Amino acid sequence: MRLFSKRKKQGLSSRQEQTAGRIALAILCYQQRVADYLNGKTAGISSKVWIILLVLFCAGFGLYCLSLLLQIL
């Protein structure tokens, strides 16, 4: 006797597919709006500043990981 039987995969009905399509479209539209907003906010930042921010972020994260490692020892 099996405890967990495999369920047969059933396809989605046409109404379920339409609903899933509408939800996916709404999510994509919202993502596009947020991306446009964020791109507008950061449009004035030069590539040099982005590189400095990236280096600072990586250094901070690396120092945090190093501190966690040293706490274990």
> How many helical stretches?
2
Identify the overall geometry: flat
C-alpha termini separation: 50 Å
Radius of gyration: 24 Å
Task: Characterize the largest beta sheet: strand count, sense, and whether it forms a barrel.
Answer: none
Question: How helical, in percent, are the residues?
Answer: over 70%
- The average pLDDT value, as a whole number, equals 91
Structural class: mainly alpha
Strand content: under 5%
Low-confidence stretches: none
Order of helices and strands: HH
The number of strands is 0
Protein traits:
mainly alpha; 73 residues; single chain
Please give a structural write-up:
The chain contains two helices and no strands. 74% of the residues lie in helices and 0% in strands. It has helices spanning 14-41, 47-72. The N and C termini lie far apart (50 Å). The chain is mainly alpha-helical and 73 residues long.
Quick structural overview:
With 73 residues, the protein is mainly α. The protein has 2 helices and no strands.
Write the layout of secondary structure elements.
Layout: H1 14-41, H2 47-72
